[in-house]
Design goal:
The protein is α+β, with helices and mostly antiparallel strands. It has 14 helices and 15 strands. It folds into three domains: 163 residues, Uridine Diphospho-n-acetylenolpyruvylglucosamine Reductase, domain 3, CATH 3.30.465.10; 110 residues, 3-Layer(aba) Sandwich (Vanillyl-alcohol Oxidase, Chain A, domain 3), CATH 3.40.462; 101 residues, Vanillyl-alcohol Oxidase, Chain A, domain 3 (3-Layer(aba) Sandwich). The structure holds flavin-adenine dinucleotide (FAD).
Length: 407
């Protein structure tokens, strides 16, 4: 929907709550570049910024800042929407509020977002970007949960799983340096499953010593494997736009435009260990097909009036299995194989009754969507009949059949 760019990015830096007005088709990277000119930036991100505002607001928009600021849909002041009835409507928490919350996380079902007003905050200049490893899953998640519940904490908390990879040292981005190169060089994974905590602390020029102390203090409270502390320092924009670096590399090798059978799951905190025991190693036997992200967020930062469906616990995890189906001769990497693994994961979650919800869900039948929405299905249907009664919008989600009146 990138072609939906009807106005320029307009920033109001003056008030107590600065914001930016953008078109629905605007890319987040452009919003970042423009707002940085005023020393400002949006608060909540996705890991990749070359996505449209309308696209991510139709889902949620989750990254390592979500534990503190909520997803992107929690950081919107106002929308302008063309509903399925062809009406151009402004909506916000104070005006046409039902449409506002319907559209946020609404999978494009209720209207086309033509404009959005997004909350901004002062942008830091630099980022201390840190990775540490754990071999014990419970220790890893305990530390992640500690970090997202603390007042004084990092500005970004994510993590990923490393399964059956012995080339660990080559696996780190070249920009990361070990704190203790000698110790780090002695560390071997022996192929066992490891969990990498990835955190970042933002700071401004001139605050280097202060932030270093703060980071030391935060790290001293964690129980990672001490030889595996890796640091990097990068400008804020470089940190936020980090996936683009990989995109350029992959594009140059013809490996970007390949099928991505991604599976994104939201998992209640109380079930994350059971999930890990069942899925990491039993089903996912290596992580060479793409990153497997895992990090917790606080439900209190999500607004239950939006259309997005999340688990019913105060803390839940995003687990993103981001596979790339790169053509190869072994046959094991093919798309079909990955889709079967995804199905096995979903079947496991269902059989174990983990209360998992899919994020960026793919379903082909309305019955499956009904299960996805659960008790919220009726409200979703009511909203559809109010704003798009002929089911003209986003039929590709296969929630409603185009042109059929709702029963
Ligand atoms: C490389 C990559 C990395 C990603 N990383 C993350 C991540 O870290 N966190 C995260 O939360 N998500 C992530 N995503 C998923 C992303 O949020 C969704 O794919 C989102 O839909 C992408 O927006 P788009 O601009 O590509 O939308 P499109 O593919 O154009 O649209 C997707 C859906 O959104 C609806 N839509 C699009 N624009 C509008 C509009 N203006 N008004 C109403 N509905 C609209 C469409 O109807 C459609 O249903 C990632 C995606 C990619 C490709």
């Amino acid at each position: 929907m990138e072609s939906l760019k009807n106005t320029k990015i307009k920033i109001d830096p003056t008030g107590k709550f600065p914001y930016v007005d953008v078109s629905g088709g605007e890319l987040w990277i452009n919003i970042l570049r423009e707002s940085l000119k005023y020393g400002l930036a949006p608060k909540s991100w996705t890991d990749y910024l070359h996505l449209t505002v309308g696209g991510t607001l139709s889902n949620a928009g989750i990254s390592g800042q979500a534990f503190r600021h909520g997803p992107q849909i929690s950081n919107v002041h106002q929308l302008e929407v063309i509903t399925g009835k062809g009406e151009l409507v402004k909506c916000s928490p104070d005006q046409n509020e039902d449409l506002f919350y319907s559209v946020l996380g609404g999978l494009g079902q209720f209207g086309i977002i033509t404009q959005a007003r997004i909350s901004l905050e002062p942008a830091p200049a630099m980022v201390k970007w840190i990775r540490v490893l754990y071999s014990d899953f419970k220790t890893f998640t305990r530390d992640q949960e500690y970090l997202i519940s603390s007042e004084k904490t990092f500005d970004y908390v994510e993590g990923f799983v490393i399964i059956n990879r012995t080339d660990l040292m080559n696996h780190w981005r070249s920009s990361f340096s070990p704190r203790d190169p000698v110790q780090a060089s002695h560390f071997t994974s022996s192929g066992k499953t490891l969990f990498c905590l990835e955190v970042a602390k933002y700071y401004d020029h001139g605050k280097t010593d202060e932030v270093a102390k703060e980071v030391e203090m935060l790290l001293s409270q964690l129980s990672y494997i001490s030889s595996t502390l890796f640091f990097s320092e990068v400008p804020y924009i470089e940190f936020l736009d980090r996936v683009h670096v990989s995109e350029i590399k992959l594009r140059s090798k013809g490996l970007w435009e390949v099928p991505h059978p991604w599976l994104n799951l939201l998992i209640p905190r109380s079930k994350i260990t059971e999930f890990a025991e069942g899925v990491f190693s039993m089903i996912l036997t290596d992580s060479s097909k793409g990153p497997i992200l895992i990090y917790p967020v606080n439900k209190s930062k999500w607004d239950n009036r939006t259309s997005v469906v999340i688990p019913e616990e105060d803390v839940f995890y995003l687990v993103a299995v981001l596979s790339s189906a790169v053509p190869s001769s072994t046959g094991n990497d093919d798309l079909d194989h990955m889709l079967k693994k995804n199905k096995r994961i979903l079947d496991f979650c269902k059989a174990a009754n983990l209360g998992v919800k899919q994020y960026l869900a793919h379903y082909s039948r309305q019955e499956e969507w009904k299960v996805h929405f659960g008790p919220r299905w009726e409200v979703f249907v009511q909203r559809k009949s109010a704003y798009d009664p002929l089911a003209m919008l986003a039929p590709g989600q296969r929630i409603f059949q185009k042109g059929l009146l709702l029963s």
